[in-house]
Amino acid sequence: MGPVRYDLWIVDQLADDWYGEGRLDFAEARWCLDQIEPGMTIADCGAHHGNFTVAFAHATGMSGKVLALVVMKLPWRNK
Questions:
Q1: Helix (H/G/I), strand (E/B), else coil: 26
Q2: Phi first, then psi: what are they for 43, rounded to 5°?
Q3: What 3-state DSSP class applies to 27?
Q4: For the chain, N or C: smaller number of CB within 10 Å?
Q5: How far apart are CA 67 and CA 33, in angstroms?
Q6: Residue 50 pLDDT exceeds 90
Q7: Tens digits of per-residue pLDDT, 5-25?
Q8: 59 Cβ contact partners less than 8 Å away, ≥ 6 residues apart
Q9: Are 44 and 20 in contact (CB under 8 A)?
Q10: 36, 26, 43: which is closest to 1 by C-alpha?
């Protein structure tokens, strides 16, 4: 699979520094994308901004599925 490119609007500087310009060109991302085939169902646990989710959706194609999960502590349940 070739390079994955997409637009991602990020408002905080830390995330912007981490994700750059929407490229997934580091080793972990390449490994993940190399394992995915069209038609697969993928779970993106800890999806955060969703940059892997978008890349996974591209890799699985129209016949595949990507489930994105973000676990958050509910502010009113801190006690």
A1: coil
A2: -110, 120
A3: helix
A4: C
A5: 15
A6: no
A7: 555 566 666 666 666 555 666
A8: 1, 4, 33, 36, 37, 38, 42
A9: no
A10: 36
